[in-house]
Design a protein that fits this description.
It is a single chain. Helices cover about 40% and strands about 25% of the residues. It has helices at about 10-20, 50-55, 60-65, 95-110, 140-145, 145-150, 205-210, 215-225, 230, 285-300, 305-335, 345-355, 365-375, 380-405; strands at about 1-5, 25-30, 45, 70-80, 80-95, 115, 130-135, 150-165, 170-180, 180-190, 195-200, 235-240, 250-260, 265, 265-270. The strands form 2 sheets. Strands 3, 4, 5, 8, 9, 10, 11, 12 and 13 form a 9-stranded mixed beta sheet that branches. Helix 1 (about 10-20) packs parallel to helix 4, helix 1 (about 10-20) packs parallel to helix 10 and helix 3 packs antiparallel against helix 4. The longest helix is centred in the C-terminal third of the chain and has 31 residues, at about 305-335. It is globular. About 40% of the residues are buried.
Length: about 400
């Protein structure tokens, strides 16, 4: 099979690795419009379950990813002057640039061609049996046929900015700061020996009230450093200009993207071109890699291409339902921060960990905390919760989709 992967992100690179491992005779090219090594971004986060999956499908690249990652197993929340910690699942962080470098090197070693500074346009698709659109949330290949794919984009309410810092956090860190214009908060996690990612979020009126929509990048970063001085310990925040990217870091609103179908003829969507989930659940890279695993698995079977693409789409849509539900409720938790922020910090942090629940928005926070605490004392109730939670999420998600027509 001749395969063209458009976009040199995790989905396209990992798919090329898996297909070459399945059949070295596949002719595979990855086309990336940007120069090699020019990736902008800080760290990406993933969880132990993904690392196990990567070891299962390509041990060599999995070992390299693990060796270049940092780990943590707890979370810490700072609310004003108060701090609380909770143990958690084993999390991992790795620099985005290093992660893509590992995948690119592995793909090359298997015979995949990588063509950088090669932009593919909808009117000039490569001559291939399969064209994989891994060109991100703004995918030109998908946009050309947006009506066919049934593309929908919903903008979130809060604004956020993606930054780096030389402060190396020792755990996944949340910090909530009250200002005269409302609350502003950050998510921070390490991804190397000398760097962490720091995502800062607030309501749009808070951003404008603080003047974070004005001035130079350096002036905005200085204000944010002052607001989050309690967790930065004198370390600077790093934006695009200070990182040498040549343009200012921008405040954005998150775009939740869905598609009714994921393939058209020999064109198939993967990663952010197919779906997005709110950054607060830290699943974007994981979902892109799982798309690649599922698509490679579907193509392994001796079936016509349309059947393989149908199988891939069905499998991934089913797997995404609980994740999309969790992401939607996570985003809403932060958009309704006032509902939770004045609880005692340990209770607020506990409900922060429960923000994926479809029930939480409808139950008084203190009551939900007491019920959840009681469930935690009973193994039978914990099993019931694990069984019931995904089913409630799927039901709520299906009703939401039906109500949209």
């Amino acid at each position: 099979m001749k395969v063209a992967c458009v976009g040199g992100g995790p989905a396209g690179l990992y798919l090329s690795i898996l297909l070459k491992r399945q059949d070295p005779s596949h002719d595979i090219t990855v086309h990336e419009r940007d120069p090699e090594g020019s990736t902008y971004g800080w760290g990406v986060t993933y969880w132990r379950e993904l690392l196990d999956r990567l070891h299962e499908h390509d041990p060599e690249s999995a070992r390299a990813v693990r060796e270049n990652s940092v780990r943590w197993n707890q979370g810490v929340a700072h609310v004003g002057d108060l701090t609380t910690r909770r143990p958690g699942d084993e999390g991992h962080g790795i620099g985005r640039h290093r992660f893509l470098e590992i995948l690119a090197d592995r793909a090359r070693s298997l015979g995949v061609r990588l063509e950088f500074e090669r932009e593919i346009t909808p009117g000039d698709l490569p001559d291939a049996d399969l064209v994989v659109a891994g060109d991100g949330v703004g995918s030109a290949l998908r946009t050309r046929h947006a009506g066919y794919f049934g593309t929908r984009i919903k903008n979130g309410r809060n604004t956020y900015i993606w930054l780096g810092t030389t402060k190396v956090f020792d755990s996944f860190t949340f910090a909530f700061v009250e200002t005269g214009h409302g609350w502003i908060w950050c998510y921070g996690y390490p991804y190397g020996a000398d760097r962490s990612t720091c995502v800062i979020e607030c309501a749009p009126e808070t951003r404008t009230g603080l003047g974070l929509d004005q001035g130079s990048e350096a002036e905005r970063l200085a204000l944010l450093e002052k607001l989050f001085a309690g967790i930065l310990d004198g370390h600077p925040l790093i934006g695009r200009t200070s990182a040498g990217a040549g343009s200012d870091a921008q405040w954005l609103t998150f775009r939740t993207l869905t598609n009714r179908t994921w393939h058209r003829g020999n064109l198939v969507l993967v990663g952010d071109a197919a779906h997005t989930t709110h950054y607060s659940i830290g699943a974007g890279t994981t979902l892109a890699l799982e798309d690649a695993i599922a698509l490679a698995g579907a193509l392994r079977e001796p079936a016509p291409l349309p059947y393989a693409l149908d199988r891939y789409e069905r499998e991934r849509k089913k797997a995404l339902l609980p994740v999309q539900s969790a992401a939607r409720y996570s985003a809403q938790w932060y958009e309704n921060l006032q509902r939770y922020i004045h609880l005692p910090p340990e209770r607020m942090f506990a409900l922060l960990g429960q923000r994926h629940s479809p029930l939480l928005p409808y139950v008084p926070p203190q009551l939900y905390y007491r019920i959840d605490h009681a469930v935690g004392q009973s193994e039978a109730l914990r099993r019931l919760k694990r069984w019931l939670g995904p089913r409630i999420a799927r039901t709520v998600h299906a009703r939401t989709l039906a109500s949209r027509g």
